[in-house]
Amino acid sequence: MDTHTLPLESKKILEECPRLRILVVGKSGVGKSSLIYSTFGVDMASVSHDAPGVCDINTEITSTQNSLFVVHDSMGFEPGQTENFEIVKHFLESRSGDKVPVKDRVHVIWHCIQVPHAGGRTSETGDENFLKLASVQKVPVVVVFTQFDMLVERMEQDLLEKMTPDEDIDRLALEKADSEFHRLCLEPLRKASPGVRYARTTGLADRSLSRSSRRSLMHLIQITRELVEENVDGDVWIVSVMAQRANALEKINGSIEIGLKRYWQNLASAASFGNSTLETCLATIHEEITESWNFYDPSDLLNGKEFRDRIKAFVQLVTPGKSEVRSWFENLENIETLVGLGTALASVMAPAIAGIALSVVFIRWLTNAYRKTPEVLRCLMGYIIDLTLVMDQLFLIVLAIRPPRALTVDDIDLALEEYKRLDLGNVHREVRLYANKATFAQILQANNAEQKVKELIQRFRVKS
């Protein structure tokens, strides 16, 4: 079958700005490497950089495992020393401003400061001057307080010496650490730079990330995206979402935003598809979505025929009208719930079907040109939602793998089966309730089917 695609919005965005450019500032040992590793899903052995403790701010740190980000590393600011501050100042002046192409600018700064776990100052005069410099150059900054977990551990040790083991030491230690964090970190920061945004990370150096560690990282990614969206021209914020590999909700929102730029708009009567075959429409949607998720997929499994066919096998179930379903599928009694004609699907009662084959009727149907019918609308809605939610499942599976590795067929199989088991039937049922003959004229008039797509994606995404 033809897998030709129409022009892709994701490629257009990346042509204008192929990588998110971050300046990471901080003293050696503050946790910059762990931060890059955890945010962008790369094995640090694949990242090009200088010797530990030594860095050249002009060197572009990149990874073969994730081509959508580049980092510039700067040492922190030691008391009484001005040399590094001047180096950073010159670098920022050369990498900011309207005269610098957006792809070459520093898009955001992560200023990393270790949370003190044995008393002491969190920042020096050089840090405060640097925040003023970034403000003058109009480069957004996130102050990233790292290694908060070490402060919590210190509080636990203090409490263990004073309390009995059956008392709620974990909760009390966290409360005391929070209080100390506000006193030592936030209050001085607010005095020096009242409007600066901050994030706090914890446990990023651990072999497996705890839930609190993941949430702290997700918060940093969210703040980064917000600042880039507010302060940097164009669609660089979408590049920031594509580049990161730690926040699934940001991935979903970025994928939706890319889709809404062209092919999701006016989905029931999409002029963007013109007279293209439905096969071309689906191929375009498929590549647009998989590109936006930016998995480490050197074998291109997500754009291979096998994976495309398995998504089509899901989508064919929701496509035909109720009266045509039996003529499309011979084993209807086994898949009626997945088709969306049965009652709501309970995860423990999902039909145990080893594989769903592509219907010959559906394959032939895809050779038709795009047209305004409920069947076409269900097909397009189903493809967008099914594929996005499979990507969401896959993201969760890969997120737990440390160190990061290339995507495998087993990962994809597990994501497909999890989505089929948990949500496929319910999603198809909702799509059928929305896009049927009785409502199609109203949908055409309202011209906002993409809003229903967004609603269903958000309702059925993995809640982590």
From TrEMBL:
User: What keywords is this UniProt entry annotated with?
Assistant: Membrane, Transmembrane, Transmembrane helix
A single Gene Ontology molecular function, please?
A: GTP binding
Q: Where are the transmembrane segments?
A: 344-367, 379-401
The source's domain of life comes to Eukaryota
- Pfam families recorded: MMR_HSR1
Q: Does the keyword Transmembrane apply?
A: yes
Instruction: Give start and end of each G domain.
Output: 21-146
Q: Is Transmembrane helix there in the keyword field?
A: yes
**What protein is this chain from?**
G domain-containing protein
